[in-house]
Amino acid sequence: MNVIVDPELQSALEIVKGAHAQRKTLLLVGACRVDYKGRAESKLGLGDRILIVKEDGAVLVHRPTGYEPVNWQPGGCMFSTQLVDDKLVIRAIRPKPHETLTLTFKKVNLAAQLDLTDRSAFELYATEEEMQETILLDPSLVEPGFRPIAPEKRVKPGFMDVYGMDRSGTPVVIEIKRKTAGREAVLQLWKYLQELRSQKTANIRGIFMAPKLAKGAQRLLETLKLEYKPLSPKRCAEILNKEKGRKLLRYL
Amino acid sequence: MNVIVDPELQSALEIVKGAHAQRKTLLLVGACRVDYKGRAESKLGLGDRILIVKEDGAVLVHRPTGYEPVNWQPGGCMFSTQLVDDKLVIRAIRPKPHETLTLTFKKVNLAAQLDLTDRSAFELYATEEEMQETILLDPSLVEPGFRPIAPEKRVKPGFMDVYGMDRSGTPVVIEIKRKTAGREAVLQLWKYLQELRSQKTANIRGIFMAPKLAKGAQRLLETLKLEYKPLSPKRCAEILNKEKGRKLLRYL
DNA sequence: GAGTGGATTTCGCAT
DNA sequence: ATGCGAAGTCCACTC
């Protein structure tokens, strides 16, 4: 890590160039103007802002208030930095669509090259597992009268299933997807159903639960005479939150 | 400004509390875990991140790559900070919807309280004037066969007009708004049309161009038998960019 | 205060 | 590569 407080622009320039060269995260705080030109155009006069240039070339310019950056660029930018007329000019160029974001620093209060190591996986809930829990908690999410019999282990990595019976006693296999499901997910359910049908009765329903179905997945689903019931991870998290404290009933 | 490099957690705590107390922007770089619970839930294991807490209580947690914050809170958060088990725990609580974002710092590499002054107005183009230019440049934006006759000066501050003729030779008055137009904007066009109709022929069309119409404005527009054609500044900026280099034809 | 639609949306997945 | 739809979307504005 390399931090300088109230650096001369020349020193700040070195920090900036060093960060770019080593593909490290750059942090710059100071008074600057910001100009953007590309899909749209914007201008922002002199003021104190925080500039972050990440390892992948993503650029963020933050004002002292607000969640959103006032200007930005997604990752993959190229950079050109130089001292011009006693000002530190940092130009971020995005190839496609062609855009340029220009920061002109009059004064730098804080310049830092950061060595950030971050290998952790980000997990957003509700997971498919929690979606499964949610269905066991409130089986009416599937349909009125649905009764879960057994939560199943994954058939293939990435899938979660629930077995149950509908109100008329017909076996039901449920496949859950955390996000928009594609054809392959529907095929998985189909394959699974086929296996069960060969082992047991042919009278089994298959219900696909996901926030959404891709177009091709929907066609396939109709062709295979499977059913679809929308269910989002968000909805599940809400229900789990609300029902928190209750015991999760397990069925055999 | 108050910056400490590689502070003890106790010193970092003081920086954090000081920043909150004085409503200053807080900058924290270090190894932390991040937990979010609210509309959804998320977990992020130990890793190096940048934390920004802004003057308005907006919270941003950034990993070393990517445009988007991995976790965040919009402005208006309350905070509780403390040392727990040799870790610096910062909790941001959002009242509505009720959400909590918890950062658990194991090590702080950089802690800063920033005094940022930023009073400049952010300007995003295209302006109404540029939207007008765009229509003169590509009259088909209004409708096929439209021919501009004269760009007009503003009738009232905030408005731009274009005069022209449609393909059948009927005079057309165009009113432009940079953003969603309300009733008063439609009334302006109406007033203007009335004036022209009293002076010249009664056979004049009025076309309103804006990214969107407010509901009330749309009702009024229908009542007054005016027309509406969507046009966004973004679209204009794109066209202006594309057609850049061409001469802007002026009509008398 | 709830609802609606735009965004320099970004991002991801299907086509 | 292109395009469509979701997002913990956020935000501004209408009702």
Plain-language structure description:
Helix content of chain A is 23%, strand content 40%. In chain A, strand 11 and strand 12 form a beta hairpin. The C terminus of chain A is likely disordered. In chain A, helix 2 crosses helix 5 and helix 3 packs parallel to helix 4. Chain A has 252 residues and is α+β, with helices and mostly antiparallel strands. At the A-B interface, strand 2, strand 3, strand 8, strand 9 and helix 5 of A face strand 2, strand 3, strand 8, strand 9 and helix 5 of B. Strand 9 of chain A pairs antiparallel with strand 3 of chain B. The structure holds a DNA duplex (15 and 15 nucleotides).
Number of strands of chain A: 14
How large is the count of helical segments of chain A?
Answer: 5
Percent of sequence in beta strands of chain A: 35-45%
Largest sheet of chain A: 8 strands, antiparallel
Helix-strand sequence of chain A: EHEEEEEEEEHEEEHEHEH
Uncertain runs of chain A: 245-252
Q: Which radius of gyration of chain A do the C-alpha atoms yield?
A: 27 Å
Please state the average pLDDT score of chain A.
Answer: 86
Largest interface: A-B, 55 and 55 residues
Query: What multimeric state do the chains show?
Result: homodimer
Gross morphology of chain A is elongated
Could you give the distance between the termini of chain A? Answer: 56 Å
- Please state the structural category of chain A: alpha+beta
Helicity level of chain A, as a percent range? 10-25%
